[in-house]
Amino acid sequence: MLVIKEKYIIGVDIGGSKINAGLFKNGKILKSVKIATSKKSRREFLNKIEKIIGELIFKIDKKDLLGIGCGVAGALDLGEGVILNAPNIKILNGFNIKNWLHKKFGCEVKIDNDARLFLRAEYLFGAGKGYKNIVGMTLGTGVGGGIIIGSKMVYGSNDSAGEVGHMVIDHGKDLEVLTVKQIRKSKFSKIATEKFEKNLGIGLSNIINILDPEVIIIGGGAIEDIKIFLPKIEMTAAEFIISPKSRKHVKILIGKLGEDAGAMGAAALFYEL
Amino acid sequence: MLVIKEKYIIGVDIGGSKINAGLFKNGKILKSVKIATSKKSRREFLNKIEKIIGELIFKIDKKDLLGIGCGVAGALDLGEGVILNAPNIKILNGFNIKNWLHKKFGCEVKIDNDARLFLRAEYLFGAGKGYKNIVGMTLGTGVGGGIIIGSKMVYGSNDSAGEVGHMVIDHGKDLEVLTVKQIRKSKFSKIATEKFEKNLGIGLSNIINILDPEVIIIGGGAIEDIKIFLPKIEMTAAEFIISPKSRKHVKILIGKLGEDAGAMGAAALFYEL
Description:
The structure is a homodimer of 273-residue chains.
Chain A: E1 8-14, E2 18-25, E3 28-36, H1 42-57, E4 65-72, E5 75-77, E6 82-85, H2 97-105, E7 108-113, H3 114-125, E8 134-139, E9 143-149, E10 152-153, E11 168-170, E12 173-174, H4 175-178, H5 180-186, H6 190-211, E13 215-219, H7 223-226, H8 230-240, H9 244-249, E14 251-254, H10 261-267
Parallel strand pairs in A: 1-4, 4-7, 8-13, 13-14
Antiparallel strand pairs in A: 1-2, 2-3, 5-6, 8-9, 9-10, 11-12
Helix pairs in contact in A: 3-10, 6-8
C-alpha cells in the first residue's frame, strides 16, 4: 500500500438514495457531507455534486489536491469513465462522470463501482485488514459485491466482476430480488424473514463454494436492519458449504466503517492495491 | 510458463469412473493408459495405480523422471497430500496419495483437484491459450470447476475454490444435481432437456456475473452428450448476465484436449503458472 502523504483527496460515494462525500488526508477523514440523491434531472444532480465538492475543497490550495475518487452504484466503463447502467439513478445512465469531474475541478479523477469501494475501504482500514482473500457484499437499495484475491482487487474482463447480487438462486430470481428488496416489502413477517435468511445463507454459501475466501464482509445501508439475523444466516450457509475446511474457517463479518466506507474507498482509489 | 526440458513427467487423472495416466516430455504425451476406476478396495485400487505407472516408466532411467502429477476428483488437502472427500471414489477418503506415490516411486509428487487440472491443461495447451481470466467447468460423474484470474490459478484459502457444481441455483438444489445427474437419469426427454438447458444456462450466468471471465471452457466425460444443447444454454445464460459488455464479449468454449486433459494438467503441475 502506497500512501500519498501531505496531499488532499476527495472521495464521493453516489448511492441509490444518498450521496456521501469526504475530504481525506493521510487516510483520515477531515470533513464530510451527506445529501439525498437527487433524481429529478441530471442537471440538478450535477449542480449538487459540484456544490458539495466545492464546499469540501473551499479552503484548499488547488495544488494540494491530489484528485477525486468517485463511486457509483451501477455498471461503469472504468477506462472511459462512463456510467453504463445505474439501475437506481437512471438519470446518470450514459453520462461520463469522470470527464465531467475532471473539467469541473481540474484534477485527476478515478471512478469505481460502490460495492468495490466498500470492500477497498474495509480491506485497507476496516474489518478486512490483514486478510488476502475477501469478498465484500453490500446490502442497500440493491445488492452489490467486490472480490479481493491474493490482496488484489478482481475487476474481471469487462470491469464487472463481483456482481453477486445478480446470482440466480431460486426460481430464476436473483439474490437482490430475494433478499433486501423482499425483506423491505414484507416488513419482517416471520415467513418473509425465514425465506430471507435461507436465501442470503445460500447466496453466501455459493460465494464460498466458488471463491473459498477467508472472510466475507457485509455492509451497506440495510445491514443495521438485518444483522440480528446473521447467526441464522450463517447456519444456513454452513449447510451448503461443500468443503469441511472452508465451513470451519470462513468468517462472515460486518463492515467496521459504517456509512463512510464508500467515500473512504473512493478516496483510496489513489492508494495502490 | 517454465517448461522443464529433457525430463519425463507422469500425469495421472483419477476420476469417478476411469483412470487416465500418461508419460509426458516437453509438454507432449508419449504414451498413455486408461483403466476403469476400481472401487472394490483401496488395496486393489492402489495395486492398479502402481501397475499402470510402473508400465509407463518401465524403460526410463529413474534420474530422468522429474516427478508425478496426480489429479483426484474430490476435495484435497494439497499441502498434506490427503484426499479429504472423493464422493465418487469413497475408498480413497482419508488416504495420503501424495506420500504413497512418493514412497512407491521415489520422486517428487504434486496433486490437485481434477477440474483444476482440466483447466490448467486447456489454459496451457488447449482452448484457453492466450486468455488471462478463465473459468473451467467439468461435466462428468459430477460437476467440477477451476478459476484462473490474471493468468494465475485461484486456489482459495482452503484449496477449495472453484466448486461451481455446488452452487445452489433452484429449490436448494445445486448445479451438479440439476444438470449432469438429471440429464442422465431422464435420458434426454424434452422436459428434462429444457430444465437442464435452463439450469446450466443459469449456472454459467452466475459464474459470469461473479467473475466476469473472458471465457468459460467446458469439458468432462459428459460434454460429448450435451454439446448440441450449447446454443440454447448460451441463450439462457445471456438472459441473466447483468453487464451488457460481459454478455457481448464472454465466450463459452468446449475444451480441445478431450479425455487426456486431466492427465496433461496433472503433468503440467510441474510447469509454473
